[in-house]
Amino acid sequence: MDCSEFISHPRQRTSPFRVLGFEAEPADRRGPRIALYSHDTQGLGHIRRNLLIARALCGGGTAPIILLLSGVHEAAAFAMPDGVDCLTFPSLGKATNGEYFPRSLNVSLSKLIELRSKTICAALKSFQPEVLIVDKVPLGAFDELLPSLKWLRARGQTRLVLGLRDILDHSDTVRREWAAGGYESAIHKYYNRIWVYGDPSVYDPVREYGFAAEIAAMVCYSGYLNPQDVEHGPRESEAEDRQGTLQSLNLPPGPLVLCLVGGGQDGLPLAEAFLRAALPAQTNGVLVTGPLMPDNARAELRSLTAHRTDVRILEFVTDPRPLVRQADRVIAMGGYNTICEILAFHKPALIVPRVEPRTEQLIRAARFADLGLLDMLHPPDI
Fold it and tell me: What is the pLDDT of residue 190?
């Protein structure tokens, strides 16, 4: 199956699989101060996941005060619920070979990490959270969280939670990186709990990554985060939503095929394949390039649609859920948040996962394809 075949003939599926909602642990008292950290070196997945968690925590009736700490300045463009705000620090970039570099500032990598580390520590000392939820990396990027963790431990008034997406990477890679970074020792020393945003029946990191018994005992599975759980207020039907979206994009009535390429920095091949694929008659296509796609790549894509009336390109959508809900079918990369949205809204989907520098998207797409919930296509086959 390629893009053109999927667009014309998506497989229809019904499945008992359910995307589980996130349930926050009850706060001891009203209005806890909660900080969520994400290092954010590639794409927008980490901040999007933390924002979803923040929205879920706000819906628990405890009116928490939440501070998001993010390493991408695009985080400031996202709508924040009442009681939630965001502090961004200078950004790291990540090349396709896995090497890191200062994304914007003309400074050395070591100076950038020093600046980020001091900024994060100063913010946490001022905010004095009762709970800190750290996304994915126990010590932060390049151990930038270590001064903060030491201060919080000495202070003794903050519970620390390590939040892990369902799949980090190939098991051999994760075991090697965790051993080199001393992560299990750091978790044992600084953390109170590990939340896994997934289902062990799909992928069990405790088994796959060989967690030690004392680390495994800290793990709590939330289930896959359900983006529908944080939608509020009255909502029109999908048909009415789609009609309004098509009108706003100056597209005629008809089915909608949506293509999502995450943050966009490595999404050009899939975006090109989507735009070159023939759409069925009276079908519309929408491509979201993501804010991190290079300008020259975005210009190349626009040249492909210069004379087309059935396709529109959007550069940055902070909340893709309405588009996913309105779409008749979705073609996308295999990021955690995108997969959750596709499953939550029960959309026929073709996933073309990223395969480097990490294979987590490939593993995730393969697991869900094996469950019969989506189609997967290897990038060389698009």
Answer: 98
Alpha carbon distance 350, 311 (integer Å): 18
Nearest to 34 by CA among 147, 139, 143, 163: 163
How many CB atoms neighbour CB 114 within 10 A?
Answer: 14
The residues near 109 (Cβ < 8 Å, ≥ 6 apart) are 100, 101, 102, 142
Place of tokens 């944080």: 230
**Residue 275 belongs to domain spanning:** 3-13+237-381
User: Both tokens of residue 109?
Assistant: 């990598």
Q: Which amino acid belongs to residue 69?
A: L
CA-to-CA distance for 10 and 245, rounded, in angstroms? 22
- 93-137 pLDDT tens trace: 887 777 889 988 999 999 999 999 999 999 999 999 999 999 999
Cα gap 313→372, rounded to integer Å: 30
Note whether 190 and 285 are same-domain residues.
no
Q: Which residue has the tokens 């300045």?
A: 73
SS3 assignment, position 287: strand
**Statement to judge: residues 108 and 185 lie in one domain:** yes
> Is residue 212 a part of any domain in this protein?
yes
Place of tokens 């020393």: 189
Domain assignment of residue 26, yes or no: no
**Interval 321-338: pLDDT, tens:** 989 999 999 999 999 999
Q: Which amino acid is at 58?
A: C
Answer yes or no: is 19 within a domain: no
Which residue's entry shows tokens 């994060």? 120
